[in-house]
Specification:
The complex is a heterodimer of chains A (352) and B (369).
Chain A: E1 13-14, E2 20-21, H1 31-45, E3 66-73, E4 79-80, E5 83-84, H2 85-99, E6 102-114, H3 119-136, E7 139-148, E8 156-166, E9 182-185, H4 191-201, H5 217-225, E10 232-235, H6 240-252, E11 255-259, H7 267-276, E12 289-293, H8 298-306, E13 315-321, E14 328-331, E15 337-339
Parallel strand pairs in A: 6-7, 11-14
Antiparallel strand pairs in A: 1-2, 3-8, 4-5, 6-8, 9-12, 9-13, 10-12, 11-13, 14-15
Chain B: H1 10-23, E1 28-34, H2 35-43, H3 46-49, E2 54-61, H4 63-66, H5 69-79, E3 84-88, H6 90-94, H7 102-107, E4 112-114, H8 118-127, E5 132-139, H9 144-157, E6 162-168, H10 171-180, E7 188-192, H11 193-199, H12 204-211, E8 215-218, H13 222-237, E9 243-245, H14 257-266, E10 267-274, E11 278-287, H15 296-300, H16 315-319, H17 351-359
Parallel strand pairs in B: 1-2, 1-7, 3-4, 3-5, 5-6, 7-8, 8-9
Antiparallel strand pairs in B: 10-11
Helix pairs in contact in B: 1-13, 2-17, 8-9, 9-14
The chains are: A alpha+beta (352), B alpha/beta (369).
Chain lengths: 352, 369
């Protein structure tokens, strides 16, 4: 779009009866774009090293190995008990690095904003990003902002890419699981998925369930510092713990067996799952990891985690067994081993 | 957790299993009417615990499985129209009609929405008066009160952009159809506890007298299911046939009279085609004439369309309990939850989905410990 010389930018645009909003002009690379970035985004993220003057960030890397990941965040609603799209965008990517055995160091931040988004909402998200980045120990080194016409995205979409320094020795990965390894979760499961579902659908659960959205690096770092070397770790996001176990079963060609009664689930989350006909093992987490450890390291790991408030409810939930005709099985309430079904798509509540 | 843990107690459950094994002197065939019961029987491995003593036969109680394909096709036609939004429960969106599912229509640009309550669909209509909102009302007597309330609410709000495709079905006529079918070998029924919570179980007295078959009102947890099965076996061994309530914490003889009144206010009984089973006399509910303005069929007019059913899908025989899902030649090969040929492989209450999830890949030699 060409602008005439006489064009006078009016920023921010005020909606009748509402707050200031993002307009398409904010994304056109001109004065309004620069103001949006310099007057809102940079100050909000200043404390975490965002430098918007260069086209590319320089990483102060010595001779360590690096890990890189990327993730996009499109959650509705933007804000939910325990988190929001901003904290999710930071922790989601930082946690992908952490469970790969990499200390999260640097993030990029790409914002796609819908025309008409209230700037106050953007400010809240940016503040949350800054807080989360500090908590996760990451710097945001580079970023981008686009504005798209109303309806092209749902308020805000965020992409973050992350780079981290790989620990030595790095986890050898799920293909190396050994018979006898123990499967552990770092805390109660299924909180995030139920919190977002409640925020979206307003069932009226009281108290409202809260997301577990949090950094996982402290958990990984504590284990490593204590000499504990998980063979594999994974944050159990979409598809929940069940999806992780199925991936690991396939990757290792081993049978994974878990005990339903050993899986930690907060009472309110369990009640919500029962009511909706959902299996907590299928529900997303955003601050809970699954780890496979050599059996002799389980006691020290649980003893260590029990002293850290964020992971006090970590638990051993099962073990790796020799391959049989099923890759993942769960011991249900009556004691029988049953196949654990792999989530197909989004879990749908029952009809009656 | 109260009302849950005590009904999943492994000690109580194994005591019940032993009692059933001791009490039964011959193999009995017991039909669990509801798909939710089928899923929990398989999920907890109760069917294998009782193998050789009690054969559990899944019944037709899966609401989306029995919804007529014509109704699904009609919903898809409406969803493809501009300015029409079709809302229903999540499971219904995945069920294949003649030409894909409602989710396929959505992917092609149609307006399809999952709601958790029919009243949410009324709210969608209230918020957007320029759009026609059609609620696809499926389900047994358990969901009918909520859809009836939605009609009353829409009437109260004076909405002229809300209507329903009413595909409600009634459990008891289906049980009668099964008992009257040639070659029926069902010895007893586990009646669906939640349906009885709504409609009560007094109406089963006549059914029991006519067919001399025990009907035990049964819940959904392992201890509920085993208690219901034991009660059936006790009656069968004593050559008795009574209505018995093993779901006393929820079901009452007359049911939920308030819910029943709402349903009677809005709906009347009608004959209804059940997918796979054919037309069942008095097997459905439709809007009473005074609510005809909320009937999507009269508002939009049915568009004639050729119905295409997969001839590889044996869901009718599965729903009538004549074959196990694993007895269908397509089961687990041509028909899986990812590529379903029929509704019972899709729904979270479908018998084929239950067998696929819990029985197809059952660990060899898996035992309790």
């Amino acid at each position: 779009m060409n602008r005439s010389a006489a064009w006078e930018p009016v920023c921010p645009v005020v909606r009748p009866g509402g707050g200031a909003v993002v307009t398409l002009a904010h994304g056109e690379g001109g004065l309004l774009s620069r103001r949006l970035i310099q007057e809102r985004i940079v100050p909000a993220l200043e404390s975490i090293n965002l430098d918007c003057t260069a086209d590319a960030a320089l990483l102060p890397v010595s001779d360590c190995r690096l890990a890189m990941t990327t993730d996009s965040f499109v959650v509705t609603p933007l804000f939910f008990p325990g988190g929001d799209i901003g904290s999710l965008a930071v922790y989601g990517t930082a946690n992908d690095l952490a469970v790969a055995g990499a200390r999260p160091r640097w993030l990029s931040l790409s914002l796609i904003l819908e025309e008409g988004l209230e700037l106050a909402v953007l400010d809240r998200v940016l503040a949350s990003i800054a807080t989360a980045a500090r908590a996760a120990g990451v710097s945001i080194l580079t970023g981008d902002t686009k504005v798209v016409p109303r309806g092209a995205v749902d308020q805000i979409f965020i992409n973050t890419s992350g780079v981290g320094e790989i620990l030595d020795p790095a986890p050898t990965g799920p293909a190396t699981l050994q018979v006898g390894d123990v499967l552990l979760v770092s805390g109660p499961i299924a909180q995030h998925g139920i919190a977002v579902l409640e925020a979206r659908e307003e069932f009226g659960f009281d108290p409202a369930p809260s997301s577990d959205c949090a950094p996982l690096w402290p958990c990984v770092a504590a284990l490593y510092q204590a000499g504990i070397r998980p063979r594999a770790m994974r944050d159990a996001t979409r598809g929940g713990v069940a999806a992780v176990l199925h991936e690991w079963g396939a990757a290792s060609n081993r049978s994974l067996v878990i005990d339903e009664s050993a899986v930690p689930v907060l009472p309110a989350i369990r009640a919500a799952c029962e009511l909706l006909g959902l299996d907590p093992l299928h529900i997303a987490n955003e601050g809970t990891l699954v780890a496979a450890l050599p059996a002799e390291q389980v006691e020290p790991a649980l003893s260590l985690l029990s002293r850290l408030p964020a992971y006090a409810r970590a638990a051993a939930i099962g073990r790796v067994e020799s391959a049989s005709d099923t890759s993942v099985a769960v011991r249900r309430a009556l004691g029988r081993l049953q196949p654990l079904d792999e989530p197909l798509g989004a879990p749908l509540p029952r009809i009656c | 957790m109260k009302y849950l843990d005590e009904y999943r107690d492994p000690v109580v459950a194994s005591r019940l299993v032993r009692a059933i094994l001791q009490r039964a002197t011959r193999p009995w065939k017991i039909m669990e009417v509801c798909g939710g019961q089928t899923h929990n029987l398989l999920r907890h491995g109760i069917d294998t615990e009782l193998a050789g003593v009690v054969e559990l036969i899944h019944g037709p109680g899966c609401p989306v499985c029995v919804t007529a394909i014509e109704a699904i096709d009609f919903a898809q036609q409406l969803a493809a129209q501009p300015d029409v939004l079709v809302a229903s429960f999540g499971d219904m969106l995945r069920v294949p009609g003649s030409r894909g599912s409602l989710l396929d229509v959505r992917a092609a640009g149609g307006n399809v929405r999952t709601v958790y309550s029919p009243v949410d669909a009324v709210e969608l209509a209230r918020r957007d008066p320029n759009r026609q909102v059609v609620f696809f009302a499926v389900g047994f007597e358990t969901t009918a009160p909520a859809t009836a309330l939605a009609v009353l609410q829409a009437a109260r709000l004076g909405l002229d952009n809300f209507s329903l495709i009413v595909a409600h079905v009634r459990v008891q006529p289906a049980m009668e159809a099964i008992m009257s079918s040639p070659g029926c070998n069902v010895n007893a029924f586990l009646a669906a506890g939640h349906v009885c919570t709504v409609i009560g179980y007094e109406s089963y007295e006549e059914f029991v007298a006519r067919y001399h078959v025990p009907v035990v009102v049964t819940g959904f947890e392992p201890v509920d299911l085993l208690s219901g099965i034991l009660a059936c076996v006790e009656q069968l061994e004593a050559d008795e046939a009574r209505v018995e309530n093993c779901y006393g914490r929820s079901a009452r003889p007359a049911g939920n009279t308030v819910a029943g009144e709402v349903v009677r206010q809005v709906y009347e009984i009608c004959d209804r085609p059940w997918r796979g089973l054919g037309t069942i006399i008095a097997g459905g509910l439709r809007l009473k004439p005074q609510w005809a303005r909320f009937d999507a069929a009269s508002r939009f007019g049915g568009l004639p369309m050729e119905v295409i059913e997969s001839d590889e899908c044996h869901s009718g025989e599965v729903l009538a309990g004549r074959i196990k899902p694993s007895g269908c030649p397509s089961f687990g090969t041509r028909c899986t939850p990812e590529q379903p040929l029929g509704a019972p492989m899709v729904s979270s209450e479908g018998a084929c989905a239950a067998y696929f999830r819990y029985a197809l890949h059952r660990p060899v030699g898996a035992t309790g410990s």
